[in-house]
Task: structure prediction
Amino acid sequence: MKLATIGYETSTLPAVIQRLKDADVKVVIDVRAVAASRKAGFSKTLLANSLQEAGVDYVHLQKLGTPKPGRDAARNGQIQKMHDIFNIHMEEPEPQMQLGEAIDIAKARKAALLCYEDDHHGCHRSILADEMRKREGFEIENL
Result:
């Protein structure tokens, strides 16, 4: 089973959709706490509609997003602090339930975890992908 991850920081919506389609992704799992973006096309409703038109489903799992203190740390280049904050957040029941939901979705059809950062190492989606790999044996493909 493959699980993709993708960031859109330096990309356009058409380019992201093409990368998803080239990788045969069937559903995008948006793991942003706030599914709004200053970057054109990446706010929740427009993104979901654009993906749907391209034949890719969209699910927003808000509780898999980084809490505000973690986002602030990441913006300040404090990646380890962001990871620490996110790991503590993931111990809570709601994020654990949504992680189970993400696993179920990804087991049923190829999924991609979507967040802002291009570099998956600097993004919490790498933590999620690694946990999904540990639990279910997903092979991770960073697009």
Notes: The longest helix spans residues 93-108. The chain is about 45% helix and 15% strand.
